[in-house]
Design goal:
Strand content: under 5%
Pfam family, one: EamA
Family: Belongs to the EamA transporter family.
Organism: Streptomyces thinghirensis
Largest sheet: none
Keywords: Cell membrane, Membrane, Transmembrane, Transmembrane helix
Distance between the termini: 10 Å
Number of strands: 0
InterPro entries: Diverse_Substrate_Transporter, EamA_dom, EmrE-like
Radius of gyration: 20 Å
Shape: globular
Amino acid sequence: MNATTTRGALLAAFACVLVGGSFTANSLLGDYPYAGGQFLRYGLAFLLLVPLAGPGATTRLRTLGAGRWLRLALLAAVGMVGFNLAVLAAERTAEPAVPGVFVGCAPVVVAVLVPLMDGRRPQRVVLYGALFVAVGAFTVQGWGRTDGAGIAFSVCALVGEVGFAVLAVPVLRPLGPRLLSTVVCGVAAVESALAGVLVDGGGWLRRPDAVEAGALLWQAAVVTVVGFVCWYMGMQRIGAERATLFSGLIPVAAACTAPLVGTGSYGVAQAVGSALVCAGVAVGSGAASLRFARRGRVPGTRQRTPERSLEKL
């Protein structure tokens, strides 16, 4: 890895660790209206991101055509509001591990889908790493009780996780990470308000108590503002395929932080799953191959120079 890809990997990893740790905050919002909470989270994040959008933001937004604005609306609806709604709906009839397992398959889907959309073949090293990550995520979370509805909504959550990366690819370059995060948060806030009025009527929003306010502030300022910008900065540097590998760190971070609030335990299965996720990230990102290449040897190949080894990554 060069300095750019190393920085991108660290940014993507940090973003996913923040998201995984946010599950603790989610447990404090169980009694708060879903749509209202999403509106406050994304609305506050939008206000915090506006000063960070960068110079020429208005000009860049004016150059977007109708197709890209539609993509931004889909990104917010599918990858943000829809994803969270699908997870919540799945957990009504399924244990939380079930949607978590499906979301853990996102690296495999992205590793196949993004290259096909670009008219190229999937990279085997990324696909192998994604499979390791998916198996590791399953091992960390296990499997739980569910029914048909739980599985269906878990599949919707997987679609949302994939959409959060794939739908952003064509708009990341013209907007940049900060402006893209700003726009999708603003759009998601509007969509959440509309969903709240339609589903919950007048009770879609209320004043949060002190605990709920703290959880919402954490999700808005840290998980959304910092996490989203870091995620898209990482994706800009290493691409959607490799960045999505790091989503396997989400259940790992959740498993590590759960014991801190007494909502779970960290045992042998979590340790093994965490090791598999880390191995998958190392393989898929090219870090493992680079390490052997620097020693003059790549596993399963004849000795070759590091330059020739890296050409195949």
